[in-house]
Design brief:
Layout: H1 2-11, H2 16-32, E1 35-42, H3 52-79, E2 83-87, H4 94-101, E3 107-116, H5 130-133
Antiparallel strand pairs: 1-3, 2-3
């Protein structure tokens, strides 16, 4: 993943020192996490349709299902007193991850979760009032 990330950052025109700093931070996040969970989409489980519109909708539903599973994972971790961070970096290195971990061809890495006991609990942020985010009709 680091090589893929570095290649992309070089294409973006970032300075070498900034690239090295980002690579170091990314590697430390992965290697320092007590548990890393990789969530994958399984395209073999998708329904197949003859038209592109419904096939795209099916793919979107599958992506949403993976995201919902990730949310449930984070909620379960929180309920157990654990902290979790969700990153989508696997989306940028799917083939490298599949090859390195010898994943089935039908699996598409979607998200990675770093889970462990938090060093500190952040303060709960103030939320917007419902009236500010809900439209009543």
């Amino acid at each position: 993943m680091g090589q893929d990330f570095e290649r992309d950052l070089l294409r973006d025109g970032l300075a070498r020192e900034k690239i090295q700093a980002q690579l170091k931070r990314s590697k430390e996040r992965i290697t320092s996490a007590p548990v890393v969970v990789l969530l994958c989409l399984d395209i073999s489980e998708m329904d197949s349709y003859p038209d592109e519109k419904r096939q795209q909708a099916e793919r979107m539903m599958t992506i949403q299902s993976v995201a919902a599973a990730g949310l449930q994972l984070l909620l379960a971790a929180h309920a157990a007193g654990l902290g979790g961070v969700w990153v989508c970096s696997p989306l940028f290195a799917q083939e490298t991850i599949k090859r390195t971990l010898n994943l089935p061809e039908a699996w598409e890495p979607q998200g990675m979760f770093f889970i462990g006991y938090p060093a500190e609990m952040p303060e709960v942020r103030e939320r917007k009032p419902l009236e500010a985010i809900v439209i009543k009709k």
